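re: the backbone from monday

yeah here it is again, tokenized this time
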């Protein structure tokens, strides 16, 4: 091929400087283009001086040799990309049987090092088609034992292949000695603990690390107590793994907690994986007052810590104290945005009876208060906007008047811009159609008033209270319990509970709409010169000649045995406003009936049916 390329150069088809790059390309058969990516050279045409190359999105692409020499980089046959193109099945076999050989191929392809993300990108899904995380974990364990691989602690650092073998113990101890500061040394010490079973002399390594940690823990005790506590945990873990005894005079976790430091602030500086252990150590160091301090810190820490604090308190039998604290903070509108964020995210069955409309009012207050604390205000605001079910869940058990107040508060809030506010108001209207006029700012056409008896109004209000006070809260608890099972996409209990919630909310909306329109009456002094609500009509069926009577009462009144019908029924509508002697026609169950009105009398309300006007919250605006 060199000879042919030299002839082409003499003929002026290519330049002399193109010969070597073209030789590399033709010998390897694989190339890389900065825009088109990896390519496989299929043919070399020395007559027309061009390559035919298969690129991922440009199969059979032809390229002038001179241009190819300038724009392509030759890829060695040993490169992972070339091997994928030449023999993918061989690599899949290697992935199944020899993790380290495959990792070595990848690392050597990229100069001896590559990050985990780079390794994943080149192997998944072509070579490794199954569980990548499981495969990587197995490979990582093998690399740590093998002396040729440096496996980084940080995910963003590269995995490195080195020709000279270094034992795991020597590598980790070298990293520990080179680490600057207690925080960095704790990270390496934790890695040494995790690999304790694979070290050649665990006791020797532990003694060196523990001695160095003790010296730094003492110096950090007052200035950085959270780092000192992490050091204590790492030291104690390593000592336990090595079976060593404590050293007299060394700093303990109890000493860290005895410092004059703010509990919540110290906890915030710890990694999330250390929170529960730190809580347990604090509890052990403050056996009498720990629960008071933890409970008092609920309103001062992040949502993640709120979850840990509340979880430990409930686990230790302090549920009532936690509930009292949460109820007080919410009712006084002093709850922090982070505490409210935790409550809203979890919506746990444990605190289901706290999760009502007042929580959203407290959220508005917290967000308004925190507008200048951008991080916290943004976290809660974004969650409220993203969780489309939050408003419906929090207002499910609320009375209509409470919903109206909440709607007004949301309209006046300065936390959300106009578009976001409209979105939230639309969610309220969807769950509670009765507040439509408040949201639009206009009085929509009022639906017809419903005239009802006091007895039926009381009955309907009792049904409403049963729905709001018992059925919906019970459903909310079912949702919270089902949510705790995890994986909502496959959680049938959660789906069933949410479907029931939709039905209950539709029922609640319908009842509220009716109660808003309802006007109670005792049917006193109705007009009798014509048929009106509260009258009894004596009529003759003109087809059969039989005499019948109809008591025309309220919208929700019906008793077939007593002849009581609602004025909204077809019969009631046909009779209303008609006079004695009038003939009326109406249809019942598909059959036409003709009646003549003979007499109109006042309906006598039974004493047992007389009721005090309803003043329950749901009907306050309906009466």
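seq for it, each position gets an aa:
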């Amino acid at each position: 091929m060199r000879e042919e390329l030299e002839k082409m150069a003499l003929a002026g088809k290519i330049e002399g400087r193109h010969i070597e790059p073209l030789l590399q390309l033709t010998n390897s058969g694989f190339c890389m283009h900065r825009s088109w990516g990896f390519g496989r050279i299929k043919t070399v045409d020395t007559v027309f001086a061009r390559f035919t190359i298969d690129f991922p999105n440009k199969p059979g692409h032809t390229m002038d040799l001179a241009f190819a020499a300038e724009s392509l980089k030759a890829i060695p046959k040993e490169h992972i990309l070339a091997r994928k193109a030449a023999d993918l099945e061989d690599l899949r076999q290697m992935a199944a049987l020899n993790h380290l050989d495959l990792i070595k191929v990848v690392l050597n392809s990229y100069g001896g090092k590559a990050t985990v993300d780079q390794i994943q990108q080149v192997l998944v899904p072509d070579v490794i088609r199954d569980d990548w995380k499981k495969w990587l974990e197995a490979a990582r364990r093998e690399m740590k034992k093998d002396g040729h691989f440096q496996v980084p602690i940080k995910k963003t650092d590269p995995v490195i292949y080195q020709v000279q073998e270094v034992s795991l113990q020597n590598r980790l101890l070298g990293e520990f000695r080179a680490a600057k500061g207690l925080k960095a040394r704790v990270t390496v010490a934790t890695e040494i603990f995790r690999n304790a079973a694979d070290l050649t002399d665990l006791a020797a390594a532990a003694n060196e690390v523990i001695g160095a940690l003790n010296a730094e823990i003492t110096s950090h005790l007052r200035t950085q107590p959270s780092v000192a506590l992490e050091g204590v945990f790492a030291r104690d873990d390593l000592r336990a793994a090595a079976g060593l005894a404590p050293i007299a005079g060394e700093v303990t976790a109890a000493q860290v907690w005895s410092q004059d430091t703010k509990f919540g602030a110290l906890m915030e500086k710890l990694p999330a994986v250390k929170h529960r252990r730190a809580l347990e150590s604090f509890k052990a160091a403050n056996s009498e007052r720990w629960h008071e301090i933890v409970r008092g810190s609920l309103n001062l820490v992040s949502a993640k810590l709120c979850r840990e604090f509340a979880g430990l308190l409930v686990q230790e039998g302090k549920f009532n104290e936690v509930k009292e604290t949460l109820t007080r903070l919410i009712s006084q509108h002093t709850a922090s945005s982070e505490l409210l964020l935790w409550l809203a995210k979890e919506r746990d069955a444990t605190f289901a009876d706290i999760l009502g409309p007042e929580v959203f009012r407290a959220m508005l207050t917290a967000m308004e208060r925190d507008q200048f604390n951008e991080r916290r205000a943004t976290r809660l605001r974004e969650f409220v906007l993203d969780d489309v079910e939050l408003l419906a869940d929090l207002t499910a058990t609320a009375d209509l008047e409470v919903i109206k107040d909440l709607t007004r508060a949301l309209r006046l809030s300065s936390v959300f811009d106009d578009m976001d506010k409209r979105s939230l108001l639309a969610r309220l209207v969807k769950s509670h159609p009765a507040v439509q006029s408040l949201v639009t700012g206009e009085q929509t056409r009022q639906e017809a008033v419903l005239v009802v008896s006091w007895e039926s109004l009381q009955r309907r209000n009792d049904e409403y209270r049963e729905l709001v006070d018992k059925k919906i809260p019970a459903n909310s608890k079912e949702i919270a319990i089902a949510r705790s099972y995890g994986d909502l996409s496959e959680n049938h209990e959660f789906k069933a509970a949410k479907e029931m919630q939709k039905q209950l909310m539709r029922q609640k909306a319908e009842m509220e709409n009716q109660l808003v329109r309802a006007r109670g009456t005792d049917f006193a002094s109705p007009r009798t010169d014509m048929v009106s609500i509260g009258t009894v009509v004596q009529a003759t069926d003109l087809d059969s000649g039989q005499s019948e009577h109809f008591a025309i009462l309220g919208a929700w009144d019906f008793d077939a045995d007593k002849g009581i019908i609602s004025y909204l029924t077809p019969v009631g509508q046909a009779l209303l406003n008609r006079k004695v002697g009038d003939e009326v026609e109406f249809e019942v169950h598909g059959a036409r009936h003709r009646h003549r009105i003979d007499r109109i009398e006042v309906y006598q309300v039974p004493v047992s049916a007389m009721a005090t006007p309803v003043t329950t919250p749901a009907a306050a605006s309906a009466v």
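Residues 454-483 form the longest helix (30 residues). The chain has 28 helices and 15 strands.
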